[in-house]
Specification:
Layout lengths: L1 E5 L3 H12 L3 E6 L5 H9 L4 E3 L4 H4 L4 E4 L8 H9 L2 E4 H7 L5 E6 L4 H14 L4 E5 L5 H7 L4 E5 L2 H4 L9 E4 L14 H9 L10 E5 L3 H9 L5 E6 L7 E5 L2 E5 L5 E4 L8 H16 L4 H10 L8 E6 L2 E5 L6 H9 L5 E5 L12 H7 E7 L4 H7 L6 E4 L2 H11 L5 E4 L12 H13 L2
Parallel strand pairs: 1-2, 1-4, 2-3, 4-5, 6-8, 6-9, 7-8, 9-10, 10-11, 11-12, 16-20, 17-18, 17-20, 18-19
Antiparallel strand pairs: 12-13, 13-14, 15-16
Helix pairs in contact: 1-5, 1-7, 5-7, 6-11, 6-12, 11-12, 16-17
């Protein structure tokens, strides 16, 4: 069987390795340049590949194509593939075919995916289970299945990856929230994006679990109009629930199966309102897999947050520096500001994806004393927020941005890097942006 992999990022290489291992005739094609480390892997495994162009004759003769989540349907490449009627799947679907006898916990949402996935994994590992952390968060699902199979797969999944699943069925699906993001890939229609997120549950049966945020209006509306066949388990910070996760008397409650998990909000490792949601979702996932309440409590109290996601860097002369470089949309910045209890000097900017800054205007007025713009074009931030703040400074490199933020701050303040934008104008990716921030802070 001829398997063509389109895109040679982490997910594409993982799919290629798994395909080769399972005896497929594999060919990898990337229209851009392939990283050297990936080229070496392909060469060592005798997997033919091309970069910088696509060989239509090979691609269109494929029995099946595994498509990178980054390739849009509107591209010339995908139009030709669809015309030919070749079967197209995502790497998630491909990896699942060879691991569907294991337990799959899949997590999606517009915000909080990485934190919740890492926290769920932490709970499973603390309980002594053979679990793997895969998907958008690190190594690809397919690579893990090929090289180091596990009994439990905790997977972070984006809507782009869900768009090309067919039979993928998680035992536990978590949907955290749905806010406008990537609408350019969904014909600028919110309902298309919502439907894409709900694909995570489309193949589930009554033996499976669907864990969702009851406080999210988009999720609630969808569930009122469309059926879900798995067992729904809600979580909420607005109201006590008979079953699911909720907050009452400053305690986090998880009532799933017969053993309730109850712990003080103040004992949770992750702070801020948005992290109450993430902690409940992860804790519920643990209970669906019969992890004991003691282990769940211990995990929720001991978790260390992820790099580039509300990551504490250092305190310099009484000023705390927080790296939230992974906040690439306005909603993520809203969550970051909402959790702040001290005055904030905010570093933001980059490639603006048509951001609407009105969502954070109230929080900026209430909590932010200065904004340091970091980007090639800072006009959208000025236009969106200049009426809400007196001090705005333009910078075009991280060292200057950190120095300016430090200068504007006083003892007891927080300097927060939470960009609301993609990083590609000045950095390779959000990780490089976060690392440069940490380096600049350490040099102060």
């Amino acid at each position: 069987m001829k398997l063509v992999i389109l895109g040679a990022g982490e997910s594409g290489i993982g799919a290629a390795l798994l395909g080769k291992q399972k005896g497929f005739e594999v060919f990898v094609s990337d229209g851009g340049q392939i990283k050297d480390i990936y080229k070496q892997e392909l060469a060592v495994n005798n997997i033919p590949f091309e970069e910088g162009h696509h060989s239509w004759n090979i691609i269109l003769e494929a029995d099946e194509i595994v498509k990178s989540p980054g390739i849009p349907e509107k591209s010339e490449l995908m139009k030709k593939v669809r015309e030919r009627g070749v079967s197209v799947i995502s790497e998630i679907e491909f990896a699942w075919r060879f691991s569907k006898d294991k337990k799959i916990i899949a997590i999606t949402g517009s915000n909080g995916k990485s934190t919740t996935t890492a926290l769920t994994y932490h709970i499973f590992r603390t309980a002594g289970l053979n679990a793997a952390l895969v998907g958008n968060i690190g190594i690809s699902y397919a690579r893990q299945v090929a090289l180091e199979p596990a009994d439990y797969y905790v997977i972070e999944i984006s809507s782009f990856q869900l768009d090309d699943i067919r039979d993928f069925k998680p035992d536990v699906a978590i949907l955290l929230n749905i806010t406008p993001d990537h609408l350019d890939r969904y014909d600028y229609k919110m309902e298309n994006y919502v439907a894409s997120k709900f694909r995570i549950a489309m193949n589930q049966t009554k033996e499976d679990f669907f864990i969702y945020c009851k406080d999210d209006p988009e999720i609630r509306h969808y569930l009122e109009t469309k059926p879900i066949y798995s067992e729904p388990i809600p979580f909420s910070i607005m109201e006590p629930l008979k079953e699911g996760g909720f907050i009452e008397n400053e305690q986090l409650n998880i009532h799933v199966k017969d053993e309730p998990v109850i712990m003080s909000m103040y004992d949770l490792a992750l702070k801020g309102k948005h992290n109450l949601y993430n902690s409940m979702a992860a804790g519920i996932a643990g209970r669906t897999m019969d992890i004991r309440k003691e282990k769940i409590r211990e995990s929720l109290a001991s978790f260390k947050s992820l790099e580039h996601r509300m990551e504490y860097v250092a305190t310099v002369r009484g000023v705390d520096f927080i790296n939230d470089s992974k906040a690439t949309n306005v909603n993520s910045v809203w969550f970051a500001l909402e959790s702040m209890e001290r005055p904030v000097v905010l570093i933001m900017g980059g490639v603006d994806k048509g951001n609407d800054y009105s969502a954070i205007r109230d929080l900026v007025r209430e909590k932010v004393k200065a904004i340091i713009c970091l980007g090639v074009d800072n006009r959208p931030i000025h236009e969106g927020l200049s009426k809400d703040i007196e001090v705005m400074v333009n910078t075009d490199n991280m060292k200057d941005a950190v120095a300016a933020a430090f200068q504007m701050s006083s003892k007891g303040d927080v300097v927060l890097l939470s960009p609301a934008c993609a990083s590609f104008d000045l950095f390779k990716n959000y990780e490089e942006r976060g690392r440069q921030f940490k380096e600049a802070v350490r040099e102060l």
